[in-house]
Design goal:
This protein is an alpha/beta fold and 246 residues long. 22% of the residues lie in helices and 30% in strands.
Length: 246
């Protein structure tokens, strides 16, 4: 490392983007850099919104800037709306999926439509990974010693001046030896299943070709989001609170 040693924990899209802009930083990337997008073929609706920062990022990687209109649906009280999220929907959705109060970023910011780039997130991650691959350390953090400014890995120890974490909060607490605090976090796991359209309820089948995906806040339905994906649908579930640290 150089004189000003910046070390990043993780190798998902956040870590890779940071490395792309900070040319001196290194990252402990584990054995499979790329995060979820390099490990799972099917995820919920992962889109790159069109704004100044994303346009600059894609341009710097020579990725196409073609955009498309995304239409969002909200299933509420037995019907799907295509405008902004209905009143109270955000509160119910946050409670169902996170066990917390809502944030502005939830539910695609509550919008009914927005512009997104046609380039996929996994393509962006692959390009970022290619651009920074020489600064990805294939080692996994096992312990952080904050006062010594050191991260211990499976194969070596790494000194830092600045440490940037992009790993889940429970994982970070475990690494610094404070997993006694993880009970304060209401972490919930997500799982994804691929269903045929015929397996969906009738109200959802009628939305195919109209919306790109649907949010569902109703507590009596086990899934919370449907993404229409060609001839199938990606069904996203939230599991109950998990005490297991990832």
């Amino acid at each position: 490392m150089g004189q000003n040693r910046t070390l990043v924990l993780g190798s998902g899209i956040s870590a890779l983007t940071y490395l792309h802009y900070d040319k001196e930083a290194l990252a402990l990337a584990g054995d499979q850099p790329g995060g979820l997008f390099a490990q799972q073929a099917q995820l919920g609706p992962q889109l790159i919104w069109v704004d100044k920062l994303t346009t600059e990022l894609l341009s710097s990687l020579n990725l196409p800037l073609c955009a498309k209109k995304i239409i969002v649906g909200y299933y509420h009280q037995g019907a799907v709306t295509h405008a902004i999220a209905p009143k109270g929907f955000k509160d119910d959705y946050a409670k169902k999926t996170r066990g917390s109060l809502p944030k502005d970023s939830y539910l695609s910011s509550g919008k009914g439509t927005f512009e997104a780039f046609t380039v996929t997130v996994d393509k962006l991650v692959a390009e970022l990974q290619r651009a920074v691959e020489l600064r990805l350390i294939k080692d996994k953090a096992t312990k952080i010693l904050p006062w010594q400014r050191e991260v211990q890995g499976l194969h070596a120890a790494y000194k830092f001046d600045t440490l940037i974490s992009t790993v889940p909060a429970p994982t970070l607490l475990k690494l610094i030896g404070r997993d006694d605090l993880d009970h304060r976090l209401k972490a919930r796991d997500k799982v994804y299943e691929t269903w045929k359209h015929s397996e969906l309820p009738e109200w959802a089948q009628t939305q195919r070709g109209i919306v790109d995906y649907i949010y569902i806040a109703d507590q009596n339905l086990p899934y919370h989001r449907l993404k229409f994906n060609g001839e199938s649908t990606i069904v996203e579930f939230t599991l109950a609170n998990s005490d297991e640290l990832k």
